[in-house]
Amino acid sequence: MPLNHPTAARRSRLSAALDALPDADRVDAILVSNLVNVRYLTGFTGSNGAVIVWASGGEPGDDTIATDGRYTSQVAEQTPDLPAVIERDVATALFRLADAARSSSGGGSLRLGVEAQAMTIAAFAGLRGLAAEHDVTLVPLSDTVERLREVKDAIEVESITSACAIGDAALSALIDRGGVAPGRTERQVARDLEWEMFARGADAIAFETIVATGANSAVPHHRPTDAVLQVGDLVKMDFGAVSGGYHSDMTRTFVLGEPAAWQREIYDIVEAAQRAGREALAVGADLAAVDAAARDVIVDAGYGEYYVHGLGHGVGLEIHERPGIGAAASGTLPDGATVTVEPGIYLPGRGGVRIEDTLVVTDAAPRLLTTTPKALRVL
To answer: Smallest Cα–Cα separation from 358: which of 274, 297, 294?
Structure first.
């Protein structure tokens, strides 16, 4: 992650979020061990690390990162604004540092937040054993950093936009050279699409590329096989690139040869549902209501039972992030959320259609980051 990411500002936001926790969850500091969250807060990209961030009220010590000896030079380069501890057991090292800082400040008992969803039972048991030896109370917290990550800053949006542009360009190049055509296999098409993304600067593939032809297109998360693309098939392609650590996500569905009436029908319905979902995106919009805007189009057309997933999800340092957009979702869309809109219809044994874009939610209007046309394309 480049050093111009505002990591200090992100840690300040986390400190403020800790201050705002209800009394039952009040903490003096949080031990962040989820590596994605560590990267978000510090810029460190190693495979072993943790960071302690103090609540802003009465802070007794400095935010500190810990990693092991393999990353001594890397942590110095990537996190020059943070003191670093080099020790194999990073969580234990930071625990002791926090306890010592609190004790030296005369602050009394330490309440230390831990990321409950990111810790193994064994890791938590180890910290609990340490806590029992000291005047420390462990406070399990959930999604504290993930909630901050829902709102993307300008540099994050720039990185996601870059990843989306790579995906758009790669798909266009693949189609232009006849890479999606009868006689090719799903695996061949998937690998060629991934090559095109790497050729255009992708750091990595966002997830295992989905290429699903014919009846396989009715499986939402089909994995590519040696199935051969044939004239008359629907071909569903769901893929993404990583740029600067940030992901893109896009799905397009094509038809090989002239579409049958049923193929055009479900495509038109999904396209209308996707448009309704995009238009429902707004700052403060209820997440379940956004899902309903798209789902109602499919239900009203008589295909509700064949739409088997939620409308979308957040995208960023991970391919699936908060907020989730679905029928059972709670909460609202914040300004700066980057989300997907991806309704689908899946007819078992026949074929399916999904259309997906990545967009950023703004006060003005949602902005498309994936720009490949959505009209039904015959290949």
So the answer is: 274
- With a CB cutoff of 8 Å and minimum separation 6, the contacts of 300 are none
- pLDDT tens digit sequence for 36-94: 999 999 999 999 999 999 998 645 468 999 999 999 999 999 999 899 999 988 878 88
Q: Torsions phi, psi of 305, nearest 5?
A: -70, -15
Please give the residue range of the domain that contains residue 354.
Answer: 154-378
Residue matched to tokens 């032809």 = 213
Contacts of 206 (CB under 8 A, 6+ apart): 163, 239, 240, 241, 242, 247, 248, 249, 319
Same-domain status, 246 and 351: yes
Amino acid making up residue 375:
A
Cβ-proximal residues to 59 (8 Å cutoff; 6+ apart), any chain:
15
Question: Do residues 112 and 71 touch, judged by C-beta distance below 8 A?
Answer: no
Alpha carbon distance 345, 269 (integer Å): 9
Residues 277 and 186 in one domain: yes
